[in-house]
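ugh ok fine here u go
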Amino acid sequence: MHAKILELLQAYSRNSLEAHEAAMVLETVRFIEAEPKCLLRTCTPGHLTGSAWIVDATRSRTLLTHHLKLDKWLQLGGHADGEADLLAVALREGREESGLTRLRPVTGNVFDLDRHWIPARKAEPAHWHYDVRFMIEADDLDPLVRAANESKELAWVELARVTELNAEESMARMVRKTFSSRV
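structure:
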């Protein structure tokens, strides 16, 4: 049913992945195969999300959002809401959350994948996000327009400083991958 997503993940799994990330890819594949409604946020065990790891042309800075609900600095991204093209989701979310209009995928391949727990809040039960991430390039001189309902703040951050704002392994892994892709 979700053949394109599974193909993307299969291609991604052929990369040299750290053991933890390889396990998350396998868990994500199993989840997609077991949950026909995995693209909908109403899928209560969890759902797929698409994220944009937005970098400048030199790959020395990334655009982060201080997420309103989670109160932490993260890459931009969001719910698939039924859209099977997760790269399109990442681009849409990047535009909506930053106001940037000239975003371009560095490649159409998955850049990173993460599975993380979202705590319960209000009427929404706790659930998993299976986050498929793409590296997106933007002009860091273009004006930013923060999505007030999503973010406390937006900032271009030097890669070397990302883990000062968010020390989670998920963020550190994307920084390492960005540094290695600059070679």
